Amino acid sequence: MKNTKNKLLEKIKQGEAIVGVIGLGYVGLPLALLYAEKGFNVLGFDVDPQKTEKLSRGECYISHLNSDRVARVVQAGKFMPTTNFARLDEPDVIIICVPTPLTPQRDPDMSYIIKTAEQIRAKLRAGQLIVLESTTYPGTTEELVKSILEKTGMVCGRDFYLAFSPEREDPGSKTHSTATIPKIIGGVDEDSARIAQELYDLVIINTIRVTSARTAEAVKLTENIFRAVNIALVNELKVIYERMNIDIWEVLDAASTKPFGFMRFNPGPGWGGHCIPLDPFYLSWKARECGVETKFIELAGEVNRRMPEYVVQKLNHALNEQGKAIKGSKVLVLGLAYKKDIDDIRESPAYQIIPRLLSMGAVVSYHDPHVPKVKSSRNWPGALMLSSQPLKEEIIAEKDAVLIITDHTAVDYELVARTAKLIVDTRGIYRKPLPNVVKA
Q1: pLDDT for residue 196
Q2: Each residue of 114-144: pLDDT tens digit?
Q3: N or C: which end of the chain has fewer CB within 10 A?
Q4: Which tens digit of pLDDT belongs to each residue from 218-234?
Q5: Which whole number is the average pLDDT over 82-103?
Q6: Rounded mean pLDDT of 75-84?
Q7: What integer pLDDT is reported at residue 383 of this predicted model?
Q8: Is residue 265 domain-shared with residue 145, that is, in the same domain?
Q9: Is the pLDDT confidence value at 344 over 90?
């Protein structure tokens, strides 16, 4: 046992360990690049051959990541993307970065983690470290992943090692990166935690070890539930203050001047991203299993899920004020991504709002400088494929309404204000009152 552990630790410390990353999306790809740039040989696994083929050519499909980074590590032979999961016995370390969505009933969909663990089990060898990074409920690593891997007859903590280290990516951030965001690490056992910390210490500026994988899983959920609850609070305040003829943005600007006791969150058209709309329900599900109700979390979810409908109602009312029905009205949506200046459309409120508008008979188009085309995905399973329209004066002028969903920096909002007949602003772009702007 000591020999297995010490051999793996020595490989990691010497930079000789082969690192495998499963899932080359917004979490896995930056991590794979980081290890490759530090000199590790990295195998990147993904089920999508289009992704692996692009990466093998030195091309990147995530806009905020530099394609030059991909090209450099591929050309240096340090990063090898593949769809061949039979190679999972090659890495000394396997980091799992697969999706953890919800079912239509808002229960955890563990199918991606289960399938990945089964693929690892089929090729598991002694001396490997497995780290789960996918956000999930407390107990997943120890109860689910460990049990699947131990069906090989190998024992965790003796033959292989297992830990949880939650991803904390902030896509598009100019101040935080994979290397600079502190890393939480929790092992299923002491040796697993130590080895995992040694692994991340080599590429992350600060690592924090907690007492267990279960605690590390809870840390990630707590971070995102905190955000979800506060987003729900400001969204509810937005609706209340609108009835009182009070500008929520002015309130928040003023409240933010307090140097203590206040942390700003902004309202919007609904929550988005892979974490905030999903993670609270992972804890709610696990809490129910333990006989505990999560009323506060459920209420926050209810408030946030109502926001897309609120935005549509505001647009409908604004069109009515101009003597127009939403049916047949031409609506230009500005922004599909869930937040500004990135191309990440996962769980974006746009994918709740656009179908509602279409079902009401609106003629919908969109502009997003980061999302040139809408492709079929978990967010957009329908057959309707749209392409971004150029933001030209004549295109804006022909629309009955412009609906701002994402506040991308590259958008010329002065042109929009000058040209649009009606603007529904969900992001507080226009702080001064304008006759053609309605806030939602």
Answers
A1: 98
A2: 999 999 999 999 999 999 999 999 999 999 9
A3: N
A4: 999 999 999 999 999 99
A5: 96
A6: 97
A7: 47
A8: no
A9: no
36, containing H or E segment: helix 28-37
User: Does residue 108 lie in a domain region?
Assistant: yes
Which of 60, 97, 156, 275 is the catalytic position?
A: 275
Instruction: With 0.85 as the threshold, say if the pTM is over it.
Output: yes
What mean pLDDT is predicted for residues 321-347?
93
Q: Is the pLDDT of residue 259 over 60?
A: yes
What strands, in cross-sheet order, belong to the sheet with 93-96?
Answer: 79-82, 41-45, 18-22, 93-96, 129-132, 161-164, 183-187, 207-209
In a domain, residue 224? The reply is: no
Burial of 405 (0-12, 13-18, 19+ CB in 10 A): buried
How many angstroms separate the CA atoms of 19 and 28, rounded?
A: 12
3-state secondary structure of 32: helix
**Number of separate domains in the chain:** 2
- C-alpha 343/C-alpha 27 separation (Å) is 14
Q: Specify whether 275 is catalytic.
A: yes
Boundary of a domain, candidates 192, 211, 230: 211
Q: Are 254 and 78 in contact (CB under 8 A)?
A: no
Q: What is the structure's pLDDT at 151?
A: 97
Q: Is the pLDDT of residue 379 over 60?
A: no
What 8-state DSSP symbol labels residue 408? -
Examine residue 228 and state whether it is found in any structural domain, yes or no: no
Kindly tell me the number of DSSP H helices and DSSP E strands found in the chain: 14, 13
Torsional class of 77: left (φ above 0), alpha (ψ -120 to 50), beta (otherwise)? left
Residue 268 sits in the same domain as residue 153: no
Q: The domain containing residue 120 runs over which residues?
A: 2-211
Place of tokens 């929550």: 271
Whole-number Å distance between alpha carbons of 355 and 364:
9
Could you tell me if 299 and 170 lie in one domain?
no
Place of tokens 């946030």: 304
Give 106: exposed, middle or buried? Use CB within 10 Å, 0-12, 13-18, 19+: middle
Q: Which pLDDT does position 12 carry in this prediction?
A: 96
